[in-house]
Amino acid sequence: MTSSVPDESVSKPAPIDASHMVQVVNYEEHFNDELGAFLQAVKIASLGFDYNVTAIMGPQSSGKSTLMNMLFGTRFPTMDSGGGRYQVTQGVWLGRDSDAAILVLDLEGTDSRERGDDAATYERKSALFALALAEVLVVNVWIHDVGRNNASNMPLLRTIMELDLQLFFGASGSDHNAKRMPKTKLLFVIRDYDATPMDKLCASLREDLDNIWNTINKPPAAEGTPITDYFDLAFEALPHKIYCPKEFEQKVAELKVRFHEDGIFKDEYSRGVAADGFSEYARSVWETIRANKELDIPSQKEMLAHVRCEQIAKEVFNHFGTAIAPLQEQLLPPDRSAPVIVASLFDSLLQNCNAAMDRYGEGASRYSKTVADMKAEDVRAHLTAESKMLLDAQITAASDAAVKEFQESVNGGKDKKHKSQPWLNWNEQSQDALQRAMDIFDDACTALSLSESISDESALQSHPLYFAIGSTASSRRRLEKTLGTELQRATERVLSETRMYCLQTFQSAFKAPMTSVLESVPDDLWSRASEVADASWDATAKEARWVYGAHGLALAEAEMERVVEEDLKNECHDAAMNDIKAAIGTPSNLLLRMMKRFEDTFRFDERGVPRVFGPTEDIEALFVVAREKGEQLAEVLAEIKLSGTLATRTRASRDLTSTRADEGIVIDSILQADLKDKLKRQSGAIFMEAKRAQEAARITTKIPIWLLGVVLILGWNELMAVLRSPLLLMLTLVVVPIVYVGFTMDAPTYLMPAVVATLKPMLEQAKDALDQATRAPVGASGDAGVAVAHGALSDSTAVSTSGARTDETENAGGEKES
Ligand SMILES: Nc1nc2c(ncn2[C@@H]2O[C@H](COP(=O)(O)OP(=O)(O)OP(=O)(O)O)[C@@H](O)[C@H]2O)c(=O)[nH]1
Description:
By secondary structure, this protein is mainly alpha-helical. The chain folds into four domains: about 20-295, P-loop containing nucleotide triphosphate hydrolases (Rossmann fold), CATH 3.40.50.300; about 300-495, no CATH class; about 520-685, no CATH class; about 705-815, no CATH class. It is built from 26 helices and seven strands. The chain has a seven-stranded mixed β-sheet, with helices on both faces. Belongs to the TRAFAC class dynamin-like GTPase superfamily. GB1/RHD3 GTPase family. RHD3 subfamily. It is an enzyme of class 3 (hydrolase).
């Protein structure tokens, strides 16, 4: 082996050699970026289409390099037979003919022991590369391999012919009119030729080639065509180099002439690539070949690696499944019951995943790295999928628990004080609740330990639990958003409860005193009502500043002033208006109140004493005054005229509540007139009743003389009985003056009940005495006297009776009249 051939596993192709050679593709399949520079250096790049390309393929150590050197004057290294048979050429090399513009490709030998299991794949790629580029492809065949399948490279030729048609057949192989690919000359050089008839050797090779051509998959355009449409077949025999050196050299010299003078390179073989584009063309051909997976043949080692890595992976899955089974029971219960949050779930998963990956890595490290790495991806995906199900369930359970905790906290839970005064330290409370909820999620789902334990970014990204970092982060963001919405909802509820509380504060301060003022209806009704409203508002505003302030909802100063002075004041004003309207009541209620006011004035004097309409009373004047008082009520209560602080609202709040101009009107003018009319009618009846009472009084006080005469005549016996009895006489002398004076002074109304109560036992006694003294006739006259007294009493009482006048009253009056 010569030193010019790089036999180490280098990652970069060898640099341009002083011997006018370059390694186009190295042992590790890397294409040499310096090819263009090489073509410049060997003065090919400037030749346009005036150059040719040839290549040689064949078994390792079959004299390929020796032949090419002899034909083209290249200096490809050759094997030194003294050191045994070994691989000399590695990769694909390119040299230039020493005289002619011919590029010569020397390929790594097939069936290489050194390359081992990977040899088949590399052979296919390099041979296809040579076929794609070379106009004349020399196929080196030992004479004793002719007729053999593998040894004569027939399977390799089958593959590269098929792929050559597939990959480089014009624009589209499926198109019947696709451009035909340029022809290639396949020159079979039979080495160590002996006495076997050449025509038989050629026939054997030709037959093999026809078989290949007929059985390979071809593009539609190539279907049914003979092999000779695409390949020119030629055969040469070279005698044994060692045993017949002269004949060998002679034959090689003849072949050299064919290459240089006999026009072996035909125009139809040209790839149509200008010399300055050859390097790029070669690169794209190589990349196409490398990307084609059909050329990759798994070696036995690889197949073994596949089987073993699969088995190791299964063992790892089983172990992992057993380890996470308790977690699955809790988070994915088979009976579909609610999942239970597992403490330190992520740490547990991390530990199990790491153990699984280590176990796999340890087992698979003894096999092909490519296969082991590939299978490691499957292991990783499996661990990720299993872990993801658990982590997703945990995230859902933790998020639900966090939301529940937050809702309970902001709703006060069992804290009675919070329930009754939810605004107390609201900001602090809600932020604490938010933090507690997020802590529940973070404790259950944090995946930070992964990035903390793995510092290398690519190792982190390929970890089975890498997904968890993103997935927990996005779930956390979702939870924050949900809690944000919950907080907003809770804050709105608390604001509403706070507003209600302030309104209740106002109403409890306002309602009772305002009702009292409205019931009494003083002359300065609205100024007193305004005072009540302002006092209530001042107390409410003070309380509101406390609940909206630092100890409560902690609104900013300006916002708090706006809420109190605009929103709340506005609502309190509306509440005040509504309360006043409710207190004034319906029109029928108002009519009753007007009647009551009328009667209070008409029936009672300034001291509240019931009036007795005596004969001299000016009922008409009194009636007019009382009716006006009743009517006044309707006039005063017709419109609410609040003034003062509460009534002075800001422009903004007025705009918000779309205040109407007639906002304070309770009774319009039509209703007022109607109420006055009804009052007039109902009070008229009371007036008539009073009038009749007055008439009755007049009758009682003016008893005619003749009636006294009649009484004297009819009651003569009784009179005599009284005069004769000293007891009765004495009694009469006392009682009669008293009764007379009492009637004269209108005493019955207020004295009669007392007098009756006092005299009743005495009258009973007197009656008994009369009964005894006068027997039956005298007793009848005594009863009549008492009846008169009762009649006067009942008249007076009827006048003082309050309440609505009824027909019964009228009838009673009528009866008295009659
Ligand atoms: N029997 C025989 N030996 C030859 C012939 N030509 C060359 N050799 C010898 O075969 C050995 C290998 O020759 P190389 O030219 O290095 O063979 P190669 O195919 O290029 O080898 P690799 O590049 O390793 O694949 C050398 O010792 C040559 O002298 C030949 O026609 N017949």
